[in-house]
Every structure is written in structure tokens, then in C-alpha cells.
Amino acid sequence: MTEFNEKIIDGKAFAEGLRARIAVQAAAFEAKAGRKAGLAVVLVGEDPASQVYVASKAKQTVECGMESFEHKLPADTTQETLLALIDRLNADDAVDGILVQLPLPKHLDEQTVVERISPDKDVDGLTPISTGRLALGLPGLVPCTPLGSLMLLKDRLGNLSGKDAVVIGRSILVGKPMVQLLLGENCTVTVAHSRTQNLADVVRRADIVVAAVGRPEMIKGEWIKPGATVIDVGINRLPPEEGKKKGRIVGDVDYQSAIQVAGAITPVPGGVGPMTIGVLLRNALVAAHRNAGVELADGILD
Ligand SMILES: NC(=O)C1=CN([C@@H]2O[C@H](COP(=O)(O)OP(=O)(O)OC[C@H]3O[C@@H](n4cnc5c(N)ncnc54)[C@H](OP(=O)(O)O)[C@@H]3O)[C@@H](O)[C@H]2O)C=CC1
Ligand SMILES: Nc1nc(=O)c2c([nH]1)NC[C@@H]1CN(c3ccc(C(=O)N[C@@H](CCC(=O)O)C(=O)O)cc3)C=[N+]21
To answer: 48-63 vs 272-292: helix axis angle to the nearest 10?
Structure first.
């Protein structure tokens, strides 16, 4: 058991609350639309971490009163077969959201596959239409991990206007959309990446640090400005210790040193990860309302 510490941002608890609100709206949707909202998840290959992630998504989808469609395809699936599946899901009225688990096996072209998803069903917010709308500041489906991270930040800090934020990582899935969301909240945003020089100095300026690097415990406590809020997106599995089958999961931030200086920090596990799934269900339900022409009160799932 982790000890209670007011510095810890409990993403798991926040996500439970979000899912409870989703369940209420999902039931209301079913009553109005005469069908459940539906989420399809496509997994190509047997990456064990992804399999766990897909299984917990399916379970939580059903618990929230939505329908889950799982499509597990072998690692040697051709591009043609995968695109044909996406076409079928695009045309299926029972499916409101489509998530293709990334990364795909090397022989598949990720960009082409993602672009094939109907923007109306793009619950991951990865199509050019969704990314374009986000960049333009227009409403649309926003990638789950950055939106979940923003929800935690606003819950903890309130208004983010004028704060110095540093995002470490510039991926399409996490870093770039996170930058857009923080800009939308009027933060002063710095983006760091693998070519950034003096990363420690860049991080030290920030009131808000979002780490999405994929390097276990890389961001050290002594890099962090005292009192800063730290969002650790990283999910890294360490090699197993002696006699253990599986290694521990750690973030991109060195939690033990960072919690000494930070004002608030998300743990791994139990921080951003559960929020990603919560927002995925939220996005699926938002898409369902739009696809079925059923109204959803503004802000009710934020
Ligand atoms: N909690 C959750 O729900 C989720 C967690 N994740 C986790 O978040 C992490 C990041 O994921 P993702 O964005 O997809 O990863 P990517 O590998 O796509 O991107 C990593 C980014 O980090 C940058 N980077 C790599 N090394 C360094 C370094 N030494 N110093 C500074 N920047 C560096 C890269 O820079 P460059 O662009 O120059 O290569 C790149 O922009 C992973 O641990 C992943 O497992 C991901 C999705 C959801
Ligand atoms: N198209 C696409 N969209 C994604 O959003 C996406 C993806 N592909 N590929 C892989 C990454 C990774 N990811 C996670 C989501 C939740 C947890 C999660 O719930 N983690 C829990 C449990 C961790 C554990 O102990 O296994 C936690 O952090 O507490 C983890 C990882 C989404 N991703």
C-alpha cells in the first residue's frame, strides 16, 4: 500500500469518477438512441503489454454500459486485410469509435492505416482531420493520454493561464497534442526532444512538467523546480528482478527523487494510464452522440 501523500495526483481515482459519469451518460444514450454506444479495438500481433491494455479496455467498456468489439489479428496480417477491416468498421453503425493499437508491426504503414479511420470514429484523435482541428483550436476528438493529463492538471491547479510548461517528447500520440492543449490553456510551452540541449536546465524553468519520453526514470528530482506539477506519462517495464517473472513498471520520471521537490506528481502505475482508458471511453461516447444525432450536454464528461 502506498501511504497517503497530498502531493500524489491519484489518476486511478479520478478515472473511476470519470467512468461513473460516463456510465450514467451511456445509459441515457442507450435509452435515446435505442442501441448501446460501441467501441472497436484492433490489435495486430501479440505484444504482451498491448494485450493487457486491450483486455482492460474491453472490460471497462462493458462496465460503462457500452459495447466492445475486439479484433485481434495475427502479426503477419497484410496491409490489405487491415484496411479492409477498417473499412468494415467505418461502415458499421454499431461501431462509434475505432482504435488501432500502435505501434503496428514493421511491415504495415501506420500513417495509411490511421488515415483510413473515419474522422467521425477517430476516438484516438490521430487522423489528419482531428490533429488539424486541434491545431486550429476547433472542437474535435482529442488524443486520450494528453486530454487525460490535462484533466488532472486542471483538477489540481485550476487555471493554467501564464504557467511555464515543458513537454518532453514530441510524438503524434502524446507530445504534440499535449503541446496544443497546454497552448489552448494559455501556458507558455516549451517542447523538448532527443536533440534538446541542457534538458535539465529546460525542465528547471517549468511550473508544469509533462514527461512522455519512454526512458525509465530519466527525469531526476534535482531537475525539477520546487513546487512544480509533474505529469509522468511514461510506461516502462524494467527487467525482472532475481526470481521474478515480470519487471516493475516505472515512469519516465525518477519518482522517489521527484516527489521530494515537486508540488504534485502522478505515480506510475495509477496516474496517467487509467486516465487514458477513461478518456477513450469518453471519446467513444461523445462520438456515439454525434454519430446518432443525440445531444450531449456541454462539458458533462470533462
Ligand atoms: N500512460 C499512457 O496512457 C501512455 C503512455 N505512453 C508511454 O509514454 C512514453 C512516450 O510514448 P510516445 O510518445 O508514444 O513515445 P515515442 O517513442 O513515440 O516518442 C518519444 C519522444 O521522446 C523523445 N526522446 C527520446 N529520447 C529522449 C531523450 N533522451 N531526451 C529527450 N527526449 C527524448 C523523442 O524525441 P525525437 O522526436 O527527437 O525522437 C520523442 O519525441 C512511453 O513510455 C509510452 O509507453 C504512451 C501512450 C499512452
Ligand atoms: N492507438 C493507441 N492509442 C493509445 O492510447 C496507446 C496505443 N495505441 N499504444 C500503447 C499506448 C500505451 N497505452 C496505455 C494506456 C493505459 C495504460 C494503463 O492503464 N496503465 C495502468 C496499469 C499499468 C499496469 O500495471 O499494467 C497504470 O498506469 O496504472 C497503459 C498504457 C495506450 N497507448
So the answer is: 50
